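We treat protein structure as text, and this decision shapes the records that our systems exchange. The remainder of this section carries one protein's record, kept here as part of the documentation:
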Amino acid sequence: MEHRHGARYKALALADIQYRNGQRTGLIYNISNDGMFVLTDAPKEVTGGVELYISSDGEGRAVRIPGLVVHNNNNGFGMIFRDLDDVARTLLEKYLA
């Protein structure tokens, strides 16, 4: 059964991932209004609250995307967004357009 509320869109971008037990780099694979799927080399280590930093806002600064990991598999993890600020919303809207 599909649990997503909206369509998913391809959105390839590198992201720095910070989580409780460490940090790593990932590749955003797809995105929806509610969350995204991120490819990474050790996805089962990434659990709980996460912060992604995406350096693609066009101004050379990293945009913080906070979220919560809701599932992971051998390729990556799915997260839902939490407490997005205006800068993060603006960036995400570009991927959804």
Q: What stands out?
A: The chain is about 10% helix and 50% strand. Residues 86-96 form the longest helix (11 residues). The longest strand covers residues 9-19.
